[in-house]
Amino acid sequence: MQDSGLVERKPRAIARKMAKPWEEYFQLALQEKMPNPSRKIPDQNVDHLPPVLRLLEKRQELVDADLALQAQKEVFQTMMAAQKQRWEQVEQKERELKGSFVRFDKFLQDTEARRSRALRRAAEERLQASRQEAEALRLRAQLEELLRERARLQRRLERLEPCARLLGGVLEQLPEFQEVPELVARFDGLADMQAALRLTERQRVAELEEARARLQRLREAGQDELLGQGQRRAQLLERLEAARERTLRGESKWIQIQNTAAEKTLLLGRTRMAALNLFQLVCRHKRQPPALDIEDTEGQLEQVKLFILDLSAMLASLRQAELTPASQP
Hints:
This protein is an all-alpha fold.
């Protein structure tokens, strides 16, 4: 945008520079064509000229001025045509310059794009080169590994060469095998079977060891259980003996209680009989029939108590009465 503005301002500046000399040229041309007022008309007596001559002079001056103006107009038209041609050339140059700027801008853009592509291509090439270098290192390491493997296999082949000759001799003695690979395959099959049998044997041995260990654990657990059962049996026996002792003590105590209860019952029966006999004696003494139930021992004792209290009061009154006469004399 700045370049296009610069291109637009340049023709205007050129036009301003060119306008000043053309103006000066037009002024000089007019001064040459137009009559110079500073020139002095030859000394004539203007007052003595007839009006017709003065009119002719005026007309001649007008014609001269017209001619000068026409010449000046032609010069001006010529100059304008030249100026127009010049402007067309300037515009053409301006368009060419704009095109040049556009092409230059496009060239710069293309150059920047090519530079960016070149940078990207260089970065990709460097990345590709680093990858190829890494791949080359890997392949070199793989090649060295393969060479070591080849050397190892070569040494193994040299070491197994007597075995190959031996297999050839064995193949000659065994007509059922046509080639060495068949014999090797048979041997491999037998070796695999032996390895499988050994693996099975190891598994069976491991299972047997595990079963033995489990049996040992069960035995130890059984012994621990037997010991625990023995301890619990001894504890239960101790508790049984203690229970038996408590039972014997309880039985003896119960017998003692029963004996005491029998004695208490007998004593109670005797007491109740005695209370009943006393009550009956009180009733006979009072000449009253027994009004209480035979089982009402407390009521009977209460009646006996009342009777005894009455007797005691009576005896006390009798003693008082006996003491009173004795004190009178």
